[in-house]
Amino acid sequence: QSGEGVCMSLLMAQAGMMQSPSGGGHIAWRVRVTANNGYTGAQFTTISFRESSGGADLTTPSGATTRAFATSHHTIYVPAQAFDGDNSTVWFTSDNVPQAIGYKFPAPVEVGAVALLPVPTGSVLSIAPKDFSIQFSDDTTTGIDGTWTTAWSVSGETGWAFDEMRVYSKP
To answer: Which listed residue, of 13, 92, 147, 169, carries a Cα 20 to 30 Å from 30's Cα?
Structure first.
């Protein structure tokens, strides 16, 4: 690589503009629930997008109000509540699955794991996700529009307990 190319790569890396060799570094990530354990809608108390299974949450509670989005939500159970760091609040759909909820980051990020806490104590266990996919977009403007690509899928998740968080890593 030429000296000019190395210099440009270094400047882009310092500005946080480099994508990982695995194709990561996407602007928006979402969880798309296609089936749950018997209930008609979808719900999450907490969603944490991470670089790795033990990594820190890449979302920020302070950005949740403007960066969280969903394909549907009940009037008082808005998408930001799944990213606000408060396990007493929830996002809940007003429509049946399939539904999606996600977060549009200020700069591209690589997500290698997602932590999900769908059912707080006192809710309905059958609303927990059974089949879902983790998807990303590089061209969404609203979090709902644009082209979405599935990074990985999970199926057959049953036996959820109240206040149980599960972490799913990219295979």
So the answer is: 13
Task: Give the three-class secondary structure for 41.
Answer: coil
Q: For 148-161, how does the pLDDT look when each residue is reduced to its tens digit (9 = 90+)?
A: 999 999 999 999 99
Per-residue buried b or exposed e for 156-166, using 16+ beta carbons within 10 Å of the residue's own CB: ebeebeeeeee
Which among 155, 162, 46 has a CA at the least distance from the CA of 103? 46
Residues in contact with 170: Cβ distance below 8 Å, sequence separation at least 6, in sequence order:
111, 112, 113, 134, 151, 152
Q: Please compute Rg for the chain using Cα positions.
A: 17
pTM: 0.85
What distance in Å separates the CA atoms of residue 25 and residue 41, rounded to the nearest whole number?
30
